[in-house]
Amino acid sequence: MKSLRIVIVGSGLGGLAAGIRLVSEGYQVTILEKNALPGGCLRTKEINGFRFNYGAEIITAPFLFDQLFELAGKNRRDYFDLLPFEPVFQAIFPDKKRFAFFSDPKKMLQWNNLFSQEDERALFSYFQTSGQIFNKVFYDYCLKPIQEKTFQSFVPSFSKKLQTQKSSLQIAEAYFTTPELQNLFGFWPLLAGGNPKDSGFLFDMIPSILYHWGASIPVGGMKRVLDALLSVFRELGGDILYNSEVQEIQVFNRTASGVRLVDGSIRHADIVISDVDALSTFRFLIDSDKSNYASVTQAKEKIPGASVFTYHLGLSCPLEEKISLAGYNVIFPENLDVFLSDLFHRKTLSADPFFILKIPSKTDVYASPHGCEALSVVIPVPNLSGDILWERESYIFRTHLLELLQDYFITDLRKNILIEDFTDPLRMWTENGSYLGAAFSMMPGSAKKPLNRFPNRCKDIHNLYLVGAGSHPGPSIPGVLMGAANAVSQIKAEALRTI
User: Fold this and answer.
1) What is the pLDDT of residues 389-407, one digit of tens each?
2) Is cis: bond before 87, omega within 30 of 0?
3) Separation of alpha carbons 320 and 318, rounded Å
4) Do residues 329 and 89 touch, judged by C-beta distance below 8 A?
5) What is the mean pLDDT of the chain?
């Protein structure tokens, strides 16, 4: 087999996973990273002994990492360990009612008291439906290369019981009578930048993913995972170049032939893989003036999803809590409908937002120096298509967040701040290449049109593949790992056909 030259644009999880798979097969692989450091949304920042993660940090379906390392002839446990934890998160509602979300519904019943008898029965019925979606979608959709017409054949095969025409929030409202549980079991699309009132049933397999594999964190944080992936990639002969920003993916005769960097240099390649957001890939890296590409047109028509604002605090002392907090706390606003309208329709910053409060030391003792504490807040916010001037609003918003956080602690947060850092939609666009700062690329598919992501193999530019945000099967660590595997399987199949 000819040793193909492959260029990967971006060193996020998708780019590194695809790179490891390809160098394991004997391909010549070079990763081009525009920043001085690798990682994309896996990146971790360490400041004076505090360690802050800027993207996903909960690992589910760990077998996907095991498979990746085994393919490279390595043992994942030689590089990093995983520490399971429960509950996966704690939901906190406006009246300070709390609900501990465990991966096993039986534990939910054991540890929570928000259930009526009707809701107890509904919980097991909901998990049964979630399991049906999981069994069909995870294995027959996520784990396989796919095109739109293939997915369309799936939906009719689902029974009416799966309520495929309902949004995640509508499904939860159909099962549960308690408003808190309706919001809790309907909020999943927010984790992918989507509106729970519009986004479809696919997100309801998330509880079953947690049921099958639970939740873990890597010992040493996501930096340990990133370092492990980089080590394996290099050990197998892969090459990575930093400060190497790609200006254009070169296309000749509707075939990707390499990339042009911003310094004018050209890297010829037999195959190009983009680990950049799919919307940015087609909008900015493809010269569509030379030819008409359906993928470029499609990217221009898609609506980008929500962004996120992440706020990190390093504090000089352990924090005394007003109520017992978990490592991950999902804080619901007084009125979820108002927040969702602010986020997706008015595109304004809500005074009473939904947010995730993370206390890293609850799950990772090395996240902060001894005697100190770290806090991180993640809030869905409008992308840059709105009128928010983040150069000014980010400071005002952080001040407001401090006020909201203080409601959960006796310790005076403001007086004990040692470190403060944040990422807003503007930084997400400039640093990560996310179009308009949309954290997860385009808005997830609706209940009526569930498929909304680009296939891993570009349908109208030969030898161009996608593993970044916006590509099949979607966000989350399992989704990215599966997308990389799907792309590589198609590359190998195509290479065999040309022999």
Assistant:
1) 999 999 999 999 999 999 9
2) yes
3) 7
4) yes
5) 91
Are 334 and 350 in contact, with CB atoms under 8 Å apart? no
| pLDDT at position 449 over 90 | no
Q: Which residues contact 26 (CB under 8 A, 6 or more apart)?
A: 1, 3
Contacts (Cβ under 8 Å, ≥6 apart) of 298: 282, 454
Consecutive H or E run containing 208: helix 206-213
- pLDDT digit string (tens) for 76-85? 999 999 999 9
Which one, of 222, 213, 202, 278, lies nearest residue 80 by Cα? 222
The pLDDT assigned to 159 comes to 47
Q: Is there a contact between 280 and 361 (Cβ–Cβ < 8 Å)?
A: no
Give CA angle at 277 (276, 282), nearest 5°.
Answer: 90
Q: Where are the alpha helices (DSSP H) in 242-382?
A: 278-284, 294-301, 336-341
Q: Residue 260 corresponds to which tokens in the numbers above?
A: 């042009």
DSSP helix/strand/coil, 87: coil
CA distance linking residue 91 with residue 424, whole number of Å: 24
Q: Is the pLDDT of residue 377 over 70?
A: yes
Tokens of 442: 């385009």
CA dihedral 429, 435, 438, 443 (to 10 degrees): -170
